[in-house]
Each structure stands twice: as structure tokens, then as C-alpha cells.
Amino acid sequence: MNVSLKLELENFVEKEVETGMYQSTSEGIRAGLRLLKAEKKPKPRFMVSSMNDLEEKLRVGVRQIDRGEGIPREVAAKDLRDRAAARRKRHGS
């Protein structure tokens, strides 16, 4: 497979190779494609990247509940049970 890159991207990959981050341009391109693939992978709905992120998500949730936009307890409980069952099934438990 041949791939053409714009000069800006070509220079970026070459600089990464020069720093020793990658041993070849192909290795650098593969790393970029792995990141793109990971970015497109579905993420859990409640994934947080930091405590600040968690605190912000909690603040948003509290404001939603205050506005009456919460999920009824029975619906939330069923959703949690369904997701847990799906996770167990995926992991063979």
C-alpha cells in the first residue's frame, strides 16, 4: 500500500522519527493509525479522564436532577443490570 501525505504531515512524522520516538516512518504512521482506531472505538458512557472531569459530570447530573430530568430509579436499575449482564457475557463469566 502506498500512502501520500501532505508536506506538513510528512514533516511531522519525520521529526518524530528523528527524535527517536519511532524507528521508521512506517512505525510512526502505524502508531497514528492505532490512535485513530482507538479514538473511534465506542467508549463507556460514564468514562472520566480525571477527577475534574468526574466532578464536572457530577455537577451536570445534579443540575439535570434539579430540573426534573433524572431517570426513574427502576429504569436506571434495569439499565445497570442489563449492562452488567452484557459485560459478564462478553467476558465469559
State the main characteristics.
single chain; mainly alpha; elongated
Give the SSE layout.
Elements: H1 7-18, H2 25-40, H3 51-66, H4 73-90
Your description of this structure?
With 93 residues, this protein is mainly alpha-helical. It has two domains: 7-40; 51-90, no CATH class. It has four helices and no strands. It has helices at residues 7-18, 25-40, 51-66, 73-90. The longest helix has 18 residues, at 73-90.
* Percent of residues in β-strands: under 5%
- Using the CA coordinates, give the radius of gyration: 22 Å
Quickly count the helices. 4
| Secondary-structure element pattern, one letter each | HHHH
**Can you tell me the residue ranges where pLDDT is under 50 for at least 5 consecutive residues?**
none
Beginning-to-end CA distance, first to last residue: 41 Å
Helix content: 55-70%
Largest sheet: none
Please tally the β strands and state the result. 0
- What count of structural domains? 2
Average pLDDT works out at: 88
Structural class: mainly alpha
Shape: elongated
What does this entry show, briefly?
It contains 4 helices and no strands. The protein is mostly helical and 93 residues long.
